[in-house]
């Protein structure tokens, strides 16, 4: 980060991300403000954990607002804005990167050990071959010395015996190295023969069975503590999100049941309305048929009376005509 950006970040921390807003305009900072670090609000910002280590993430580009961090757990928006899932995703990515580093260092350590074993095997083979060569020379010197002695060449005999003794010393030195697994090079680099191991938490290369003070120094270091905290936080977030999902599912299930209940009640209400409508229509049709029957009866009676009246009138007219005759 440039000096200018670092200064801007410091001012944002002190005065807030809206320090340059014109007077009179709203300067309220909300949880979902894009300039606010959501990781810091939820728990902690990983950018602060690995400063000046191999896992350094650089300075956080967003503002760490302590007030919002205190307000968030009390807010009605707590665990409803998706910050926890976003934080879990980022921490999981960091943990995956760390796991890759651990696997890489384990492979590197295994390769180094295999290469070291191969070199050691080759060294032993060469020294065994050297021992065989020395044995041959020693036997030859002793045979030549014996022959020189028989010929009365005392000086030559003594010279060959001394040479055989020197060769015996060289052979003894090789035997000692083979028995103690010490390479022929000197001086010996102690770090080269120290057994290494990989820290399963942060992936650092450590000396196995190192001094307790150095072990404690590693355990309290930024990388070890940082990745240890990340692992714990990942498990906590997963549990929190799982419980939140279960609660949300229960609320959704309850809402579905209530909605289905309202739908059933509406269907029953509509069915009752339709039933009442059918009853009304049936009643109206029944009344209409009754009225029709009544009208037909009335018309029939009226016809009967009219026919009867007409008949009586005709009969009367007939009587009147007969009477006049």
TrEMBL record:
A single GO molecular function term of this UniProt record: mRNA binding
Gene Ontology terms: biological process: mRNA splice site recognition
Coiled coil: 108-177
Key word Zinc present: no
Matches recorded under InterPro entries: Luc7-rel
GO CC, one annotated term: U1 snRNP
Keyword terms: Coiled coil
Protein name: LUC7 protein
Record field: compositional bias (Basic and acidic residues): 244-280, 304-325
Family matches, as Pfam families: LUC7
Keyword Iron-sulfur: no
């Amino acid at each position: 980060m440039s000096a200018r950006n670092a200064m801007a970040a410091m001012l944002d921390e002190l005065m807030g991300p809206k320090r340059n807003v014109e007077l009179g305009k709203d300067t309220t900072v909300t949880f979902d403000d894009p300039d606010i670090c959501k990781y810091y609000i939820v728990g902690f910002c990983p950018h602060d954990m690995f400063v000046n280590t191999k896992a350094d993430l650089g300075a956080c580009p967003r503002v760490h607002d302590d007030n919002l961090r205190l307000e968030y757990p009390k807010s009605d928006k707590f665990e409803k804005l998706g910050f926890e899932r976003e934080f879990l995703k980022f921490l999981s990515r960091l943990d995956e990167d760390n796991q890759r580093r651990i696997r890489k260092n384990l492979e590197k350590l295994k390769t180094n050990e295999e290469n070291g074993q191969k070199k050691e095997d080759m060294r032993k083979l060469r020294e065994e071959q050297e021992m065989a060569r020395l044995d041959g020379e020693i036997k030859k010197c002793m045979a030549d010395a014996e022959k020189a002695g028989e010929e009365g060449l005392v000086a030559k005999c003594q010279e060959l015996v001394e040479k055989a003794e020197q060769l015996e010393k060289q052979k003894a030195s090789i035997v000692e190295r083979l028995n103690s697994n010490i390479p022929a090079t000197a001086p010996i680099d102690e770090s080269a023969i120290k057994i290494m191991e990989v820290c399963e938490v942060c992936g650092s290369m450590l000396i196995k069975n190192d001094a307790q003070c150095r072990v404690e120094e590693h355990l309290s270091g930024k990388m070890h503590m940082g990745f240890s905290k990340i692992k714990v936080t990942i498990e906590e977030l997963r549990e929190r999100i799982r419980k939140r999902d279960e609660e949300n599912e229960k609320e959704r299930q309850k809402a579905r049941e209530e909605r289905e209940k309202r739908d059933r009640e509406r269907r029953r209400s509509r069915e009752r309305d339709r039933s009442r409508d059918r009853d009304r229509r049936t009643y109206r049709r029944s009344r209409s048929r009754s009225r029709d029957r009544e009208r037909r009866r009335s018309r029939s009676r009226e016809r009967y009376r009219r026919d009867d009246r007409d008949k009586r009138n005709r009969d009367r007219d007939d009587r009147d005509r007969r009477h006049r005759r």
